[in-house]
Structure formats: C-alpha cells, structure tokens
Specification:
four-stranded mixed sheet, 2,3-Dihydroxybiphenyl 1,2-Dioxygenase, domain 1, 22% helix, alpha/beta, 3 helices, 148 residues
Length: 148
C-alpha cells in the first residue's frame, strides 16, 4: 500500500517513480591475481576451465554461464580475511571431482557436508588458487551414500 502511494505522489509531482533494479544473472566474478599469465595454467590445466580471452593483465574464463575473470594486480592481491567470499563450482560427481582435483595438484581439503534436502546431501571441498583466492567445488549425493 505504501509503495503505491509513493508511486502516485511521484506521478502527481511529474517525477517518474523509482524502480528497483532487476538483477538476475551474475555475469562476471573477478579474482585478483599477481600475474594473469602465471595464473592461467592453474585454471586451464588444473581446474579444466577454458580460456575465452587473455590480454596482458586480464583473462576471461568460460564457466558455463558466468565469466570468471582474472585481473592482474602486480604485487599480488592483499591478504583476504577468513570470511572472504569464495567462488564455488558445482559439479555432477563431487567424489570424482575431488579425486581429479587432488590428482591435478589443486590440494583440495576433505569432503564435508554443507546441506541436506530432498533426500540428498550437499558435499563440498575447499582449496585455494596460487594467489590464495578461496575456491570450492560442490555437488549432491544421495543421502544413503554419505557417512560422516
């Protein structure tokens, strides 16, 4: 009711009513790295993410809907707080992905439970890129297949 009254007042005063932004898709996630050229092999070869574009201090990696960008910042990114946001990749087979990450040298942590719903358990593993950016891989397994 209050929104409608505000919109009517704005219209009566000849002003357009303020519209809420319609944010629906995350287009880019930007990670700051010391050297883009040195960081690309980790994302391309270890994580298997295709490079769409790389030019000097900027690279764009294609992650099925959202572009993961690497932005060079010279001396390296500042240390991140423990509560810094991280990038979470979703996968169909979390166990196979965990094993593949370990074999490729990504040094993932142990699989741990992060949620449960609809008869499934969400599992995640955390690791860092060479610049210390927090990354995770997440996937669901049937509830009966997970023992803590």
């Amino acid at each position: 009711m209050k929104k409608a009254a505000t919109a009517r007042k704005a219209a009566a005063a000849g002003k357009p009513a303020a519209a809420k932004p319609r944010l629906s898709k995350v287009g880019y996630v930007i990670l700051y790295v010391k050297d883009v050229r040195e960081s690309i092999p980790f994302y391309r070869d270890v994580l298997g993410i295709p490079v769409r574009h790389a030019d000097g201090g900027w690279a764009e990696l294609e992650t099925a809907g959202t572009t993961l960008a690497l932005h060079g910042c010279g001396e390296g990114p500042p240390p991140l707080p423990e509560t810094a946001p991280g990038v979470v990749f979703t996968v169909d087979d979390i166990r196979a992905s965990h094993a593949a990450l370990a074999a490729a040298g990504a040094r993932p942590g142990r699989l741990h439970r992060v949620c449960a719903y609809d008869g499934k358990v969400g599992l995640s593993t955390d690791f860092k890129d060479p610049d210390g950016n927090p990354l995770s891989v997440y996937g669901m397994v049937p509830e009966g297949e997970w023992k803590e």
